[in-house]
């Protein structure tokens, strides 16, 4: 899979520029689009899956311009929107069968085989008879993935899939996506949860206010913060001073003091030592130092 995006902008009729001049190349595997709420992730995804047109710029998928080959492109894509909802009167398998009727020309027997295969793949075979709207939040999200997979897409576009899920469901969901990406499905995943990207994606971009703030590998983003992540253990008074001055990423109480990790360009306190950065540190660093967003 090869997706080439050049100079992409989306300005809504009210004048709001949700995507600004985005250039991205997305290849096979799992690609993560990271960014805070309102960064333009959903606008980008909706444009990519041809649900809305761009104001300017181009998107080529497998060399095909999405404006000229809309039907062909749509047949290649499975999409799970952020606000995916169910028809309330259908059982879990019936819902998926309905989606299969819309998306495929399969005969009933083959459709039902496919439905059960997909339910099994996303761990919902046990609850196939349960009403779809009675599934838990995580199960609904997994049924959403099954529905997006029903037409055997080459590209799966998933908008904020793990928001609101408990940690167990989040891990389960990530594992399903990892399995899929091994099976020749390219996945583009948008999220504001750093852990979704660090545990699954080899390539990523960070969007902020509609612009690409970083593109590359998660390791590449982490490299940029190396030397700027510090750990220091302080009493109440000094800790309050530090907290008011720097972005504190984590705090653990240790024997009446505070062990804090924080982001700072230079050593923030004589006792502070550098620690190995992770993607969460890099995210905070980018938001603060590169983009001027104050998190203090
Ligand atoms: N149809 C629209 N008309 C006008 N403004 C819009 C429209 N859709 C989105 N926006 C605005 O564009 C910006 C980007 O929104 P978008 O939903 O793409 O961001 P996001 O990164 O997906 O954030 P979230 O996770 O909060 O949905 C926001 O300021 C939003 O209010």
From TrEMBL:
Species of provenance: Imperialibacter roseus
Gene Ontology terms for molecular function: ATP binding
Superkingdom classification of source: Bacteria
Protein name as it appears in the record: ABC transporter ATP-binding protein
Domain ABC transporter positions: 3-234
Keywords (A to Z) from UniProt: ATP-binding, Nucleotide-binding, Transport
UniProt-listed Pfam families: ABC_tran (PF00005)
Family to which the UniProt record says this protein belongs: Belongs to the ABC transporter superfamily.
SUPFAM superfamilies tied to this protein: P-loop containing nucleoside triphosphate hydrolases
CDD domains: ABC_drug_resistance_like
Record lineage: Bacteria, Pseudomonadati, Bacteroidota, Cytophagia, Cytophagales
PROSITE patterns documented for this protein: ABC_TRANSPORTER_1 (PS00211), ABC_TRANSPORTER_2 (PS50893)
């Amino acid at each position: 899979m090869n997706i080439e995006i050049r100079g992409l902008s989306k300005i809504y009729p009210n004048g709001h520029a949700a995507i600004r001049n985005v250039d991205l190349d997305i290849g096979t595997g799992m690609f993560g689009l990271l960014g805070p709420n309102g960064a333009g992730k959903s606008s980008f995804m909706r444009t990519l899956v041809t649900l809305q047109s761009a104001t300017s710029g181009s998107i080529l998928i497998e060399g095909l311009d999405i404006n000229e080959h809309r039907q062909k492109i749509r047949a290649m894509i499975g999409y799970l929107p952020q606000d995916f909802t169910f028809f309330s009167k259908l059982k879990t398998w019936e819902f998926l069968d309905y989606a299969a009727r819309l998306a495929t020309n399969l005969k009933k027997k083959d459709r039902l085989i496919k439905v059960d295969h997909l339910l099994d793949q996303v761990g919902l075979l046990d609850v196939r008879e349960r009403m779809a709207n009675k599934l838990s939040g995580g199960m609904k999200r997994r049924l959403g993935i099954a529905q997006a997979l029903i037409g055997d897409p080459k590209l799966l576009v998933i908008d904020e899939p793990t928001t609101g899920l408990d940690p167990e469901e989040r891990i389960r969901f990530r594992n399903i996506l990892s399995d899929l990406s091994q099976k020749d499905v390219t996945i583009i995943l948008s999220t504001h949860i750093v852990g979704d990207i660090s545990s699954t994606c080899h390539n990523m971009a960070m969007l902020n206010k509609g612009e690409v703030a970083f593109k590359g590998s998660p390791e590449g983003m982490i490299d940029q913060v190396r030397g700027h992540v510090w750990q220091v253990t302080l009493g109440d008074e000094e800790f309050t001073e530090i907290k008011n001055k720097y972005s504190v990423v984590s705090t653990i109480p240790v024997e009446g003091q505070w062990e804090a990790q924080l982001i700072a360009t230079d050593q923030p306190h004589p006792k502070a030592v550098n620690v190995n950065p992770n993607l969460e540190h890099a995210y905070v660093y980018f938001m603060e130092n590169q983009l001027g967003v104050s998190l203090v």
